[in-house]
Amino acid sequence: MIDPFARFRIATRARIGLGRSGDALPTAALLDFQLAHARARDAVHGAVDFAALAGELDPVETVAVNSAAADRAEYLRRPDLGRRLCDADRTMLQALPRGERPWDIVFVIADGLSATAVAHNGIATFAACAERLPKDWTVAPVVLAAQSRVALGDDIAHALGAKMVAILIGERPGLSVADSLGIYLTLDPRPGRLESERNCISNIHANGLSHAEAGGKLAWLAREARRIGLTGIGLKDEAPPLIEAEAKTLLG
After folding, report:
1. How far is CA 236 from CA 109, 164, 219, in A?
2. Does the CA dihedral 136-184-174-7 come out positive or negative?
3. What is the pLDDT of residues 51-102, one digit of tens each?
4. 164-177 pLDDT tens trace
5. Which has fewest Cβ within 10 Å: 27, 71, 97, 174?
6. What is the pLDDT of residues 142-193, one digit of tens each?
7. Does a structural domain hold residue 31?
8. Model pLDDT, residue 192
9. How far apart are CA 3 and CA 133, in angstroms?
10. Chain centroid, CA 86 distance in Å
């Protein structure tokens, strides 16, 4: 029997035309759904191995911080605590040695709602972003942030005195993708910034936006943000598409 939905499944990861066995899903479809649900739960409740991440980033300088959420359970119950630094880490960042001028940008790699996303895509995405930035920009030590929401990047950058922050963070997993990474770019970061004052690059994973494409978009947005003095709804993503030769260079 010809499956009328087969040609649609080629074009999407959505669950289409799964069929039925009596009044339930076929066994294979049900098991696939349960596996996807388990992966999503693992992504949310998992922990990023930030020590290993720092080792892989070496010789890039890194600094580890934690939000005001003491553990994963509190982080999930209290989103507000994930948006601000614990007091000790804010003091530590403020005391870090600085150059003659403020950092142009700080990158934050944060667990967010998917530890799996950071493990699979964090380092490669950071490398692609950093490689495309103007060579004369000063880049702060990479901050590795645990129990982090997007707005924690504002508190981190403000403590460092950085002009711009790009937070690479695990996105909320779904039942088709559990390892999707997002990047949020904010100019003049400080506590209290609105979500409309950021630019977002999302769906960075093996079946979505590539690391090289994400890096190209981030670098273009960062340059334009400094040129016009805005991020968020005032800065539209009109980055040119990444040509194949550039992609191969970035991916090595």
Report:
1. 24, 17, 14
2. negative
3. 999 999 999 999 999 999 999 999 999 999 999 999 999 999 999 988 778 9
4. 999 999 999 988 89
5. 97
6. 999 999 999 999 999 999 999 999 999 999 998 889 999 999 999 999 999 9
7. no
8. 95
9. 48
10. 21
Residue 5 domain-assigned?
no
Cβ neighbours of residue 223 closer than 8 Å, sequence gap 6 or more = 134
Does residue 226 fall inside a structural domain? yes
The total number of structural domains in the chain stands at 1
Give the model's pLDDT for residue 17.
85
Quick check: is 80 in a domain? yes
Tokens of 20: 């039925």
Which CATH number characterizes residue 119's domain?
3.40.50.11240
Element (H, E) at 142: strand 142-146
- Can you tell me the distance from the alpha carbon of 96 to that of 161, in angstroms, rounded to the nearest whole number? 10
The domain containing residue 52 runs over which residues?
Answer: 44-251
pLDDT by residue (tens digit) across 110-120? 999 999 999 99
Place of tokens 């909320």: 172
Is this prediction's pTM over 0.85?
Answer: yes
Structure tokens at 54: 């720092």
**Which residue type does 206 have?**
A
Q: Give the DSSP letter string of 161-193.
A: T-SEEEEEEEPPP-SS-S--EEEEEEES--TT-
Residue the block writes with tokens 């994930």:
82
Contact call for residues 146 and 206 (beta carbons, < 8 A): no
- Angstrom distance (rounded) from CA 148 to CA 65: 9
